[in-house]
Amino acid sequence: MTDSTAESLKRSLHQVLGQLETFDRCVLLDYPDYLNLGDHLIWLGSVFYLTQTLKSKIVYAASANTFSAAAMEQQMGDAPILLNGGGNLGDLWMPCQQFREHIISHYRDRPIIILPQSIYFANADNLKRAVEIFNAHPNLTLFTRDQFSYDFALQHFHNCRVLMAPDMVFQLAGMPDLSLNLPVSSTILYHCRTDRELNRSCIPTLNVPNLVVQDWASYDWVLGANQSSLKRAIAQAVREGWQRGLTTPREWLSRQIWLSAYAHNDIFSNLYNPAMHRQSWSFMHSGLYQFQQHRLIVTNRLHGHILSVLLNIPHVFLPNSYHKNEAFYQTWTKDIPFCTFVTDPSHTQAAIEELLTHTAQTPFNSSIRPIAY
Predict the structure, then answer these.
(1) pLDDT higher than threshold 50 for residue 285
(2) Is 134 in contact with 102 (CB distance < 8 Å)?
(3) Are 253 and 141 in contact (CB under 8 A)?
(4) pLDDT tens across 237-247, in order?
(5) What angle do CA 173, 23, 160 make, to 5 degrees?
(6) How many Å apart are CA 357 and CA 335, to the nearest integer?
(7) From residue 48, how far is each of 89, 115, 262, 264 by CA, in Å?
(8) Contacts for 128 with CB less than 8 Å, ≥ 6 apart
(9) With the C-alpha atoms ordered 276, 282, 286, 287, is the resulting torsion angle positive or negative?
(10) Residue 207 has what pLDDT?
(11) Local structure of residue 85 (DSSP, 8 states)
(12) pLDDT per residue over 28-78, tens digit each?
């Protein structure tokens, strides 16, 4: 398998998003002011698509917690509002949905675009409210990122323009910034989420040497996003100085070299709140560094799968607590030979062994990932 897989998904993303009317200014909302690296990758994909492909200037950007209607309205003029993509359209992560519904309810005077999302509602009343709010908007475009969500949206959001596109992270495909040129050890990473999306019926028992079990490395950091200004400053000092500095000097040094070479300062400097985008860019390095040092990944996170596809890392992909992972895989990535989707946890061990054998015979990523035992 070559880089053409991620590149072809990037082309598919551009083809579908290209159906939007062009706009030279826009608002981008729902910044992930939390530590899920996958959502920071989504944000960066959105930023780079809007600024580099669409040539649109982001005149206002905010998270749900930092959003200010007055500040946005001062900057936006007649610009459309874009809501960032992800896996939080529904009632599993209610604060995200509540913010989305608030924006759609209060800004019916302009186009609103929801970037590619997975959809999941467990409660009929929550779905009913969302249907009423979405369908009341006269110009709402909803991008879904899998066939299940697309069919669901067509069924319920009949007054919306519904389209299907890959995840925004595929905008990053082909960027030279993705390769850190790290030597790869003999370790295997079991990248396992432990939150409400953990599928407890699909937890494999792995008997493999050199196994490392982690969620995103970022979940060991402090953030302080919702604290006072003083507490936020202290948290940032602890995170950047201690957790991402003194205790992880190799990653810190790698990140400094990477940031100096590919800082994208010109892009971020021209956007609203440059520091916010730079934080996501810095966070992205930690995800790259975490993944590229392992020879194989086992993951139950969708963006563990997507990042592995971007980096050409052989991996086993497991279900999450609902249809999101499998639906995305079946829609977009099922033909990738260095990925195996496993629904029965007892098959995980065999999938690992098969991928390791296949990789030894056909090293998909050996040109950028030298093995160092």
Answers:
(1) yes
(2) no
(3) no
(4) 999 999 999 99
(5) 85
(6) 18
(7) 22, 13, 13, 10
(8) none
(9) positive
(10) 92
(11) -
(12) 999 999 999 999 999 999 999 999 999 999 999 999 999 999 999 999 999
Residue given tokens 């409210």 in the structure block: 129
Only one residue has tokens 């874009």, namely: 82
Q: How far apart are CA 49 and CA 171, in angstroms?
A: 6
Instruction: Give, in degrees to the nearest 5, the angle at Cα 226 between 286 and 246.
Output: 35
What angle do the packed helices 274-292 and 37-48 form, to 10 degrees? 120
- Written as six digits, the tokens of 135 are 């369908």
Going from the C-alpha of 196 to that of each of 91, 118, 193, 320, 356, the distances in angstroms are 12, 16, 9, 9, 31
Phi, psi dihedral angles at 163 (to 5 degrees): -135, 165
Q: What is the pTM (predicted TM-score) of this model? A: 0.94
Q: What is the DSSP track for 174-219?
A: T-GGG---PPB-S-EEEE---STT--TT-------TTEEEES-GGG
pLDDT of 363 above 70: no
- Please report where in the chains the tokens 């990738």 appear, as a residue: 336
Looking from the CA of 146 toward its CB, the CA atoms found within 13 Å total 21
